[in-house]
Amino acid sequence: MDRRSNPPRIRQTWLRRVFWFATAFMVWVLSSFGLWLYSAYQVSGLLKLSQTDVTSPSKIVDSLASASTHARRVSIFSDLTAIQLATHVPKIGDEISTARTLSHAAGKLSDVLATGATFGKSVYSTNAQDRLFSDGRINLELVEALIAKEPMLAAAINDADWILTHDECSGSLCSQVTDLHKKIEKSKTLLSILEQSMPAIPPALGRGKTSRFLITIGNEAELRASGGAPLSVALLEIDNGYIKVSKMGQISTEIFPGNPKISWQHLMSEPFVSDPLQPIKFVNANMHPDFTIAGEEIVRGWQANGGDTLDGVISIDSTALANVLEQTGPVATPGFGNITGENFKQRMLIDSYRQLSNEGQRQNINNLIGQALISRATSSQFPTVLDALLATAPGRHIQIHMQDVNLQVLISTLHLDGATPDKRAEFGSDLIGLYSKNRNQAKSDVFQKRQIIQHVVLHKDGSADIERIIKVKNDVPPGVSGEGTIGYTTVLNSSYWCSYLPTNAEDVTMLLPDGYPNMALYNNGYQSKLAFTRGGEIKPGAEVSMTLKYRLPAGFIRNERYSVAFGPQPIANPVVLTVTVEYDYGTKSGQIDTLIAEQSMDRYVELSNL
């Protein structure tokens, strides 16, 4: 055999080995990158789901659990040798290094995500032993176990923060590092608040004492500035986690018969009360637009009337109740049919005052619905009721006021405190807030249709001229009867009106319909003034217009950036909002920017031209 033929065979064998080695190497590299990228994709997608799919809380819980698992994996996979070697490859190495930074931070946050999933599963679990609430009792042991994890969560968040702060960042992924860092900073703030409030949570749930919370049912057909008049209430008592309703009924006939005027030390001042001890009825306790004030007034008014000492107030209105019935099913009533989420406002806020023969019959039906709400909230339907209520929170249809300062800070952080826009807006913002109080005991506020059209002209010196046109229509449907000018059955609308504007607003004027009293200005004590008018009447089908004008002084607008915060009053029909900004200087002279156009607004919102 010719030995000269061996070298080609050797070369072929060597080439095959190189080929298979290269193939194996590429499979190894691609597999490493595949596992890493897949886990990173899963974390990103699952976290987006947990933030947006509020219609399916169980999906949120599942997504947090899966995100926790993938966050651990993405951190582990980022340390695979193939990934580490790739950081030295020109051009793409910096991107991979930054991606590894994100991966390591995600790994540190995996325990935080897992704890969120654990809490979520406790709310929605079908297993009574693992459930946060079961058989009329809050699982205090589970609550305390979750509270005990706070130091671990703080350490994990701080570790992730350290990684994002100290690891070098370059390439297109730096923006994601910055975004994650901002979210972690917010998480640290929330965790700091949780750390302060956590010791107060078990006592609030009845550990070592009996806690009492007043639930007020606000009637949006008869408005107070912070929501519907509190015509019905239920007193919840919590003892060692066990919940019971110790008192329930209508204020004027069952709780405080005759609804007398009582004196207490007011937190609110003019224009709502003229004297710090002015006697008022309990049903007027929530006259102030800001529930952080109105909630405290309810507490003081309740106790001044001889009620038990309260740990807090939870205000729920017709919109919130309707959503609960929409999610949990109708309530059958004797002689008045089924009350559903769809027909709740029509039947309870309109028909009941015209079709039921006496006040006692109407109040019995109100009590039936209240009892159904409490029964469902203290049963296996608790998660569904909770979701239904919280879904209405942006419009302030559920508002909470706590007596414990640290718990109130937590409630405010979660935006459940019913605060007006001056409490939430960044410093230097313009303010839009329109609030009314019924003044003729009518149930006609349910027909109100409101529109706010705000036009802003910006000047070179940083000043601005504001024109706010407020339109209110008493949109009574055809066939709805009414009589007289005062009382339950009139369809005449008569209200006080209160508008928010910044403290340093100048040259404030208000053009009002004929017969309306002149506007008066009041300092609200925060970064706001109140433009207040005792108003007048709006006949059925009629619309009135009120035009508020003011000037923001030179220097108020900085770097050409105009910002405005809008806050809603809890009402049956959300405000339709339009805001436009015009420039009268420079290259933008004559330009008009539309920040929002004819949009129904049932939530707090911040708008800006930049």
TrEMBL record:
The chain crosses the membrane at residues 20-41. Keywords: Membrane, Transmembrane, Transmembrane helix. The keyword Membrane applies. The keyword Membrane applies. It holds the Pfam family DUF4012. This is Unannotated protein. It comes from freshwater metagenome.
